[in-house]
Amino acid sequence: MSAWRISLDLAGLIFLADIDAVARRTAYMGGISFADVLVLCPGLHKQQHAPGLSKGEYPACAAMTTGYVFRVENEATVLYLQRMSKTGHLTTLSVTSETDTAALTVALTAYLCLRGDLWAVLVLAILVLVRICNYVVLGERLSGGWHGQREPGVRGDLLVLLSQDRWVRLRGAVDDLKAVTSGQWLQDPKEMEITLTTLGTLSVYFAAILLVNATNAGRAVVLFLVILNAVLVMIANADTKVLRMNGKLLKSVGEPKAYGRRLDLAHELIKETGRKDWALRMGMVQPEKDEEGPVVM
After folding, report:
1. How far apart, in whole angstroms, are the C-alpha atoms of residue 58 and residue 268?
2. What residues contact residue 114 under an 8 Å CB cut-off, 6+ apart?
3. Which of 49, 51, 52, 47 has its CA nearest to residue 204?
4. Mind spelling out the 3-state secondary structure of 118-177?
5. If you placed Cys at 214, which of 60, 119, 236, 265 could pair as Cys (CB 3.0 to 4.6 Å)?
6. SS3 of 87, please?
7. Pairwise CA distance, residues 171 & 158, whole Å
8. Model confidence over 209-257: pLDDT tens digits?
9. Alpha-carbon span 120 to 221, nearest angstrom
10. What is the DSSP letter of 71?
């Protein structure tokens, strides 16, 4: 019986895997650093889709210090709140003012150069180029712009109502809270940015095709690199407990607190804050006859 032989002719298909690890990392970090261009893993062509990871949810939010009700507009913040929150629990987060895998790519590229496997080196170079395109486009799309009027020295206390009966309380300086909840995280791409993103996506497919020309050993090295990087990025995502956004840090404070019903949460927070208007506007409590008015959310 002939020995088993493993063919890696189609190894390049791994580049096209629908994995959101890179996009999710971009959201948790609030952007991308230049060192990330050397972190190569499946799903590079999906990085610009990071805002869609929150699944289009813009949860209702009440400022319990002023009674105003609005929505959390920052998609990366919403994604983080979805991850940290728990059904039937109130999760408290604070907002304050502010795993390296790049070396692996450099080392394995040098190894392929020494072996003379230039096709494999070319494939890695194309993937790095895709990362650079994403870096440039994301840098242009990161707004860091409008976050409302500044209110220095004022403290804020927000209650966010997420889907699946998840409740989050955000506490911190009002300006810090605005930086992570208001405005647009990534601006809509312009024509040039759309062109660069399209070229990057096509380049990923082109790299998958070119990898066929590499030696079996070269394909194995590239396959090992992208799979290991994907695992490391996913581990880093799972281990990330802090959201970095517009120079601010959003992190959990204590353990989530369970409630038998949402009304109990509303009554407790009304008693703590000394005002009821925000709860009425959120539809969390029934109004008295002299309190009747429109429910905003």
Report:
1. 25
2. none
3. 47
4. HHHHHHHHHHHHHHHHHHHHHHHHECCCCCCCCCCCCEEEEEEEECCCEEEEEEEEHHHH
5. 119
6. strand
7. 6
8. 999 998 888 888 899 989 988 998 999 889 888 898 888 889 999 899 9
9. 8
10. E
